[in-house]
Structure formats: structure tokens, C-alpha cells
Amino acid sequence: MTRRSLCGLAIALASLAAAGWGMPAVASGHDLQDSSRWSWLGEQGGTYWYVPPENLQAFRWETATPQKARSVDDQTVWHIQHYENGYIFGPLVVKFARIPRLCQYLIGSVTPDGRVYISFNAVEAIPAGTPSLTTGFGQMVRSDGQWTFNMQMASGSATSQVTHWAFMRQCTPDDACWTALPGVNQSVPELLAECGDT
């Protein structure tokens, strides 16, 4: 590349960066060292998060048929009940198609700049052959004017694994998702109640 074309490329990249292209949408005016910017996640009874219709697809892989990963829908609902200094806590329910629902508890962190890491821990006996250890990482990202958890998750056991990514969206009692979750014929309260969260 010539010096002139490199200069043009640098100017183009600088323009895209200035416009925020390729970067997660981060709220301006916030101190990126201040973990309290995400405290709203656990305020006033906490927040609820679900998988929208366009992100239900996950893939399940088994050691018995390693070349045949198959598509499986995954509706997961989180109830972030508590936030403290960048850490989040709360119950959740996972409902894979054709697999009994799983009751779990999330323990995770959200850094001031919006990076997310979550461990999803079983709170009941895991059915044989069901992925049991689940971790997720991602980024808080603006989508359609709302904050989402843009997550990548993986679950695994000795014989089966599931991988899934989604823009986890917030659901409130005023939203359609509250009474009719995508992929399951249940409301948010009904699904969470199956695991004891009322």
C-alpha cells in the first residue's frame, strides 16, 4: 500500500470510530470507572430478561454423534434481584425444546464499561445427559434504544453440550413478553414460579 492510500484508510477508520461504528453503544457522560452506572439492574425488585424470538435458536452437540449438532430452541428468563458494586445475582429458568426446564441461579459481574461475565449454577438435581455447567460472557449493548445483554453462553457435561448467543432483552409487566414468552406457552411469572421465584 502506498503512503497516500494508508493515509486515506486511516482517515476513513478514524471517521468510522468517531461515529461509533463497530463499537458497542455506551451511554455518554458516564465515568467508566463507576460501577454504580448499572445499579438499576437490581433496583425496586430487580429486572427481568428474556430471549427474543429472533435469538431462540441454539445448538446441541453430543459425543455419540459429534458431526450432527442439532438446532434446539432455548428460552431463558433471568430475574436479576440484586446488584452490588458491579456484581449481579438472581434466579433464572432455562427451557430448551424437548428438555425438562432447568432451575439455576446466576452470579456474575458487569464492569463499568459494560463487559459481562456470568456463572449459571444449578439449584436442583440435573437430569442425566443434560448440560450442567453453564458460563456466559458478553457486553451491555444498546439495541432499538434499550440496553440489552449481548451474550454468548455454553453449557456442558461429559456427553452433551449446548451453545447459544442472544441479545437478552428486558421484560416488564407492561410488555407483551410478560404474558407470552417467545418459544414457550407461559408468562414470565409462570415460568419463574416453576423454580420457586414468585
The CATH topology name reads Porin
Helix segment tally: 2
Which outline best applies?
globular
State the oligomer.
Answer: single chain
Number of beta-strand segments:
10
Uncertain regions spanning at least 5 consecutive residues = 9-29
Number of discrete domains: 1
Major β-sheet, in short? 10 strands, antiparallel
Derived from helix and strand composition plus strand pairing, the structural class reads mainly beta
What is the averaged pLDDT score?
Answer: 84
Give the helices and strands as they follow along the chain.
Answer: HEEEEEEEEEEH
CATH architecture: Beta Barrel
| Share of residues in helices | 10-25%
N- and C-termini, Cα separation: 62 Å
Radius of gyration: 19 Å
